[in-house]
Amino acid sequence: xxxxxxxxxxxxxxxxxxxxxxxxxxxxxxxxxxxxxxxxxxxxxxxxxxxxxxxxxxxxxxxxxxxxxxxxxxxxxxxxxxxxxxxxxxxxxxxxxxxxxxxxxxxxxxxxxxxxxxxxxxxxxxxxxxxxxxxxxxxxxxxxxxxxxxxxxxxxxxxxxxxxxxxxxxxxxxxxxxxxxxxxxxxxxxxxxxxxxxxxxxxxxxxxxxxxxxxxxxxxxxxxxxxxxxxxxxxxxxxxxxxxxxxxxxxxxxxxxxxxxxxxxxxxxxxxxxxxxxxxxxxxxxxxxxxxxxxxxxxxxxxxxxxxxxxxxxxxxxxxxxxxxxxxxxxxxxxxxxxxxxxxxxxxxxxxxxxxxxxxxxxxxxxxxxxxxxxxxxxxxxxxxxxxxxxxxxxxxxxxxxxxxxxxxxxxxxxxxxxxxxxxxxxxxxxxxxxxxxxxx
Length: 441
Ligand code: S3P
Known about the structure:
Blueprint: E1 7-10, E2 16-19, H1 25-37, E3 41-45, H2 51-62, E4 66-69, E5 75-78, E6 91-93, H3 98-108, E7 114-118, H4 129-137, E8 141-144, E9 151-154, E10 163-165, H5 171-181, E11 187-192, H6 199-206, E12 211-215, E13 221-226, E14 236-237, H7 242-254, E15 259-266, H8 273-280, E16 284-293, E17 296-304, E18 312-313, H9 325-333, E19 336-341, H10 354-364, E20 368-372, E21 375-381, E22 390-391, H11 397-406, E23 414-416, H12 429-436, E24 439-440
Parallel strand pairs: 2-15, 3-14, 6-7, 10-11, 18-19, 22-23
Antiparallel strand pairs: 1-23, 1-24, 3-5, 4-5, 7-9, 8-9, 11-13, 12-13, 15-17, 16-17, 19-21, 20-21
Helix pairs in contact: 1-2, 1-6, 3-5, 4-5, 7-9, 7-11, 9-10, 9-11
């Protein structure tokens, strides 16, 4: 990772333009992992070339997959075949990426070799016990000082197919268990009380695995994977990431008279919670050209500057917008009225403690914010906030981008201590935003 990069953002006029935000991070990681263990060459268009996905690419290369990009920016992933994953030489350093860490630990848990994982200072603070627990039940053995990275995992020669009820709503944990289940004889099932993003199960089906989803009466879902499938390479078109599109989207809503088109944005219902909440706040967001791309619903979003009002966001909504609370809290701070975002305990274990950092940065910029238990409450007045602060981002790309969006509306500029982590998910963020009319420098 490069040196700390201080950035600042100043108040701007209406935004306008037509952009394609970068490819979906979750789908990009999974394309590389599933392509890496499938038979044949998976051709991927629109892959996110963010630092996090590059870490996953490096890890799969280290375990034998051949991966390259052609002159047209199309990626070609030639997999090793289901049994062919090789023990990596050296440590797999997955940088800032929780998705790389948890999903790759799951993937290698079904192979009888030892892999060592490490990450940056942010990732080494994040809990891995949530994957260690079910993967140990499947027969993997772990060597980790405190349930965090760095750790070594030795996969099981014959992993056990288990049924695992997720104690937290986490697509990463669900995915880790399913990926380990690829190498287990029999059916591996995950029970999730609240539905989280379903890219792993959808893509596994696309690669030829048998995955069944059963809805229980209490609303929980049971996702069941038949072990030992022969995965076959698939062409993949990666839609734009709704979690990245969220930043230009909110910036456009907040600047009066803005008119911005966001192309090809993924609208999987399990990812689209932010759009529903923003519309309830009074946002003008319309969909054009709705279509299916590689099994995912996508559309072009037309966003117009809108006067927003505060709303209540129930905890059930959290899994469908878990990465969007930082930018939603910026929208809330610029709205009129109170926004209460409930049940955000998981935000404490993201790339940073997002609950504390958002509250702290917003307060520094002049907003009225409270944390009550796991709820974040923002009192919007509708008048411009002062800004004029340098906000701590703690190696967290989404905190960084959120405060740069806030700076587009404050009377004094908002600075962030380090924008270098933005490249983990949204390379070219500043250039794309300034192309719409923001003043990020
Ligand atoms: C992701 C799942 C979410 C999300 C992360 C990406 C994924 O994490 O925050 O950015 O690709 O599966 P959790 O499953 O831990 O909530």
